[in-house]
C-alpha cells in the first residue's frame, strides 16, 4: 500500500532520499506544501514521476523528503578544509527506517480518506 522508495546518493556516501507513491491515498496529486506529513526537513518533492536511475523512470504521484539539509552530513564536505566543515549529522539506516515507519503510521491515521 505504501510504496516507499529509498535512494542513496553514493557521492562520498552522502544523503538518503525517501519517496512515497501516493497514488492510492488522499495525498494523491497534491503539492508537497499541501500535505501534512511530519518528516525530517519537511517534504521537498512532489511529481508525477520518479527517476530511479539515469534511464529508468517510474510513473505515479510521488512525494519525498531527504536527509541532506543544512546540519546534515554531506559527503562532499570532506573535500573542504576542516574549519569550513559543518560537522553535520550522519543519519544511520536504522534512524531513517524509524522515520519512514513513523511517516507510514501518519499516513495510516488518514487511511479513512483512501480513494
Describe the 3D structure.
The chain has one domain. It is 15% helix and 24% strand. It is globular and about 45 Å long. It starts with a strand and ends in a 6-residue tail after the last helix. β1 and β2 form a beta hairpin. The model is unreliable at 111-115 (pLDDT under 50). With 115 residues, it is an alpha+beta fold. The protein has a 4-stranded antiparallel β-sheet, with no helix packed on it.
Short summary of the structure?
The protein is 15% helix and 24% strand.
Fill in the keyword field for this structure.
115 residues; 1 helix; globular; four-stranded antiparallel β-sheet; disordered C terminus; alpha+beta
Backbone structural class: alpha+beta
Largest sheet: 4 strands, antiparallel
Oligomer state of the chains in this structure: single chain
Cα radius of gyration in angstroms: 15 Å
- Low-pLDDT parts are 111-115
**DSSP E strands, number:** 4
The average pLDDT value, as a whole number, equals: 77
Summarize the helix and strand pattern as letters.
EEEEH
Discrete helix count = 1
Query: How far is it from the N-terminal to the C-terminal residue, by CA?
Result: 12 Å
Number of domains: 1
What proportion of the residues is helical, as a percent range? 10-25%
Numbering strands along the chain, what is their spatial order in the largest sheet?
1-2-4-3
Beta percentage is 15-25%
